[in-house]
Design goal:
The chain has 81 residues and is an all-alpha fold. It is 93% helix and 0% strand. It is rod-shaped.
Length: 81
């Protein structure tokens, strides 16, 4: 496996970790908002956070797919040696 590929996989792993932390952060925020009450302001904040969480989950799935493909390529390259 070339140095470029190793670097690419490392960047993908960092991207995946960032996306996972973002999803966790939005999820925790939504839980805290749920405990805060049910006023119009809280509902709007939950709606906005839900939209951000949906986008973050989609980005996490994409990053997961890319990381999985990189790992698959790494395994194939190793077995080809």
């Amino acid at each position: 496996m070339s140095e470029d590929t190793v670097g690419l996989c490392a960047r993908m792993l960092r991207e995946w970790q960032f996306r996972r932390e973002l999803v966790n952060s939005y999820s925790r925020s939504l839980l805290l908002l749920a405990l805060d009450g049910d006023g119009a302001r809280q509902r709007e904040a939950r709606r906005e956070l839900n939209e951000k969480l949906d986008a973050a989950l989609l980005a996490l799935r994409h990053a997961s797919d890319q990381l999985e493909a990189c790992e698959r390529d790494r395994v194939l390259a190793r077995s080809a040696r």
